[in-house]
Amino acid sequence: MRVTALTGAGISTESGIPDYRGPSGVWRTDPEHEKLVTYEYYMADPDIRRRSWLRRRDHPAWNAEPNAGHLALARLPEAWIVTQNIDGLHQRAGSPPERVLELHGNMYGAVCTACGVRSTTQEAIDRLLAGESDPPCLDCGGILKTATIMFGQQLDPATLTMAVHAAQECDLFLAIGTSLQVQPAASLVSVAVEAGARLVIVNAEPTPYDDLAEELVREPIGTALPRICAELIGADPS
Ligand code: NAD
Question: Which fold would CATH assign to domain 1-17+66-104+155-238?
Answer without folding.
Answer: Rossmann fold (3.40.50)
